[in-house]
């Protein structure tokens, strides 16, 4: 472990895919906890598609990261010093500690986590915001019903893989859309999806016609773009589309592609609804307990794709996320557990 | 009145705006009512944006009009002969009698109407499907709440003008979007809209920022295209967009323009929901009674734009609809009351 705190800061607002020069790698002394604060040694940093949006100017559902700031990221770590009554040395914690090795925190937004229940990186995935997003997006926004036909895009990712498994647990027929044969096989053979469509090799529209002959009741969309347009042609009456993200569009330099088949919403009397997981913060605990229970029963598989390599690997790992190189939750290790 | 029945039949499926040659003007003997049928002399034919969709191949929310068929249209008229127990000579009726002067009907889908309560063309507008569309689109699909800020596009049209007035009656703040100063003045000065935006003269996005400073709670969309994209930038948290139609896109030859700002649904936790009025058929009577009551109280103004000229004026009148030449419900007179 280094005697200094290494950090990744936003140097410039990218156009299109982030470039190495959009980051500044800085170092400073390890910060010390003041009154009401604790210090944490970060073990794992979360890499999420949403990060791309945070790099743009202007507030969206959350403020932009300012130029010069440590890049925002969810992270887990271990408390090394504390002047906060709620956190003791040795506690493991989650918060948006940022892309760095050490942080201090006043406790707001920090959650104590239990490494005996699940490995630390799981708290960045299935038991963290991606899991919460899948849970509330599917059950609340998507209003999942028994025997629904559910389609999930980005299905081998952190959110999609959990959303599809929850849908299976709840008695739905589940079709995943992912890129590549390996991911697709993982969905059907290990996660129990009823079908998987490899969008890189198949005509998604045609494949959906076969896999969902009576139409799609719930579409959990993580990708937008052409895949959203394809699913729009296969909606069942009263379908619900959950707009969770649009990773195919985040790096577009010629504007977002709107869904040109959106008038299918009219024909199918369907809805398209946006969701932001933060709205469910008061219910995270209950959802995490249910997800952890399913994991213990072996009904929900949590997979993390952990990149060893520390902060210097951050940029390439982020590009790998947008290239769809990960299966499961993408995590960067920056320190020991 | 002619001794023969003149008809407008679909001759070819148009690409883009319908051409005169997409129609065949035919004549045949006036049809006679068989057992269980009645004959009707049509007085007024309804012209609706939805007609453009019916001219395309393939079923949508309703079957396409086949080549050679009399063009589908709602119409009102007077029963001239009847072998149907439910309809007597002299009764006034509404049904989708088509673009012709006479029709026979077995009663299915036919509704008796009362010309002492409202002029016949009103049954093609405020007390007909456009009024029903406005009523159920706003109150059911749009889930209108007291003090909502409501935006209506195509606001000077048959559906939009009623939707905006219902919203006012229900205690909302209402902004209409229409083309031209005259229409806009009609909305604010006669219908009581709180504001009107002339999309031909104003920057809709900027005008909305002024007229709806705290955002839009319900957007009743009849037009799609650029205006939908503009409203998407001004959504309030939890906004509901009602997709009723997209008249700006119906004649597009290079594909429908999808709403490129649809990710605002996520930021605003908003929804976009399609509606088809036929789903509410069982409740038409109740809604029409309420609308008629508001008309009698002077709280709801019904305006019809009646084109005299008979079937030979059909094509030009339809083009006028797509050019936005009408204020209120566009109706073609084809016979006497």
What topology emerges from the helices and strands here?
2 copies of one chain form a homodimer.
Chain A: E1 4-10, E2 23-29, E3 38-46, H1 50-54, E4 75-82, E5 92-95, E6 102-105, E7 111-113, H2 129-141, E8 149-153, H3 158-169, E9 173-178, H4 181-190, E10 195-198, H5 204-211, E11 216-221, H6 225-232, E12 235-243, H7 264-267, E13 271-274, H8 284-296, E14 304-307, H9 314-322, E15 329-333
Parallel strand pairs in A: 8-9, 8-11, 9-10, 11-12, 12-13, 14-15
Antiparallel strand pairs in A: 1-2, 3-4, 3-6, 3-15, 4-5, 5-7
Structure description:
The structure is a homodimer of 337-residue chains. Chain A is an alpha/beta fold. The first copy, chain A, contains nine helices and 15 strands. In chain A, the strands form three sheets. In chain A, strands 3, 4, 5, 6, 7, 14 and 15 form a seven-stranded mixed beta sheet that branches. In chain A, strands 10-9-8-11-12-13 form a six-stranded parallel beta sheet, sandwiched between helices. In chain A, helix 6 links the parallel strand 11 (216-221) and strand 12. At the A-B interface, helix 7 and strand 13 of A face helix 7 and strand 13 of B.
